[in-house]
Sequence to fold (546 residues):
Amino acid sequence: MKTKVLLLLLMSVFMFSTILYADPEPRDDGKYEISSWDDLKWLANTPGVWDQDFVQTEPIYADETNDTDIWPNGWTPIGRNIAEEGTTANLVMFTGTYDGQNNVIYNLHLENPIHLNTALGRDGFFGHTKDATIINLGLIDVDITSNANYVGGLIAYCFGPTRVENCFVMSSTSTAGITSVDNSTSATGGLVGYIATSGVGMITNCYSGISVNHVGSKAASSAGGFAGSITKGASLSNCYSYGLVSGNAPNIGGFAGIKLTAGTNEGTTKGCFWDVETSEQGIEGDIEVKGAIGKTTNQMQTKSTYEDADWVFYDEDDPETYTSYWRIDDGESYPYLVKPQHDTLPVELSSFTVNQLVNEGVELRWVAETETNFLGYNIYRAESFSLNDAIKINFTIVPGYNTSVRNSYKYEDTTVEMDKEYFYWLESVDLDLTNEYHGPISIYVSDMAEGGEVYIIPPVTRLVGAYPNPFNPSTNIYFSLDKGRNVSFDIYNAQGQFIKNLCTDKYFDKGNNSLAFTGSNLASGIYYINLRAGTETMTKKMLLLK
Fold:
């Protein structure tokens, strides 16, 4: 029997998409799951569902919005003026709920869309919200260049009562940012352009760490690191910003460009801050300016700054009962938002094998060294090396043992045909529905094959990567070796500059290994792990978020 067993690869599920795509259907609880880039595109282009409830179940990469052949002007905001040629106004607001479930959307790009009605131009991930709820969502490396009336990273125009909690916008590169380009724009902000959440609406536990550049000088226009304008009863608490703020707006500030204080238009803020050094706006002090207090970078990275303002932080000594998402590495980072569940090590497989059965079909076997917070497995098959071509062949999930000891599994595929080559992937699914693919392995099914033989994948040298990832400030680097040998690890930044050596020619045993890494003295951003083992060199990316 001709059998080819390929190197076991670990790849994240969000790097792949299926060939056939169907519009999402609501779950039994009435909510729509946004679990892929296709789902997110569907939401952006289906105004008829903008009053519904959505939950994001996976991190999503929006790199496609940088492809001008597909998206001539990049992202199309959720909640916007959908008027067509011949008309000028058909504003459809987002009035539903969006729970990001502590997931992130990466690399969203939007550039100079045409607005048939400039006054109704709203450019951000969300364009115009009203009576909406947006919680537990992060945007990393959002890049917006716009001539809209209102521009913001998360929301361009936040009308009330809209609730926004546990959300952030930040950049890991110098190229990402929020830019308004001419005199059409009234308000530009890192998280929100214009906040007018009259009524019970509020924004709490949010931050912005992205640059804001308001190029135009329209009369009464405003720009701020967190919000362009805070008005009409808006209520903000426990928020901060640290991005560079620049431009020609008549009203400009490190946190907000304008905060109205008169009568019914007064906006209220409590426990809000901005970094006077990184924003290059204002001076340090204890007096509120436009809704926030300016602090130095050192003060912004000191826990007592926020505790003195009655912020509540995650308690590591009592993790099951904490009431806040905030965490800070005192003296080393800005506050950041933590997930409401504990990070766990992904499933570790020591083998994934295939052999042809004597009678018919093939048998898949795999061995898991550990399973924590684990649901089970799915099996995918294709007649090519591409996961994009694969289909799921099991009708129900193969349940996991969910233990920290070694367990073995097998699955029979009786639907194969003779004289064909098949490729198999194994999908592991955690209890929180995070996924990971393992494989592929392949087999050529032939009537000349001998049954009963198990083809074990020999131990291989591979760099699995960092976990958790993103991380702050510490993570573990996982790798395996085909034999006991000396290895070296180096860390590089996104520009390819050497940052740190973790070890040089250090001996590790055959099989699975790990190495701790701490980036407490490093800035937020993308870093690369470089493994050298003999003549083999491997690289993986990791993201430090502070």
About this structure: The chain has three domains: 31-337, 348-445, 462-544. The chain is about 5% helix and 45% strand.
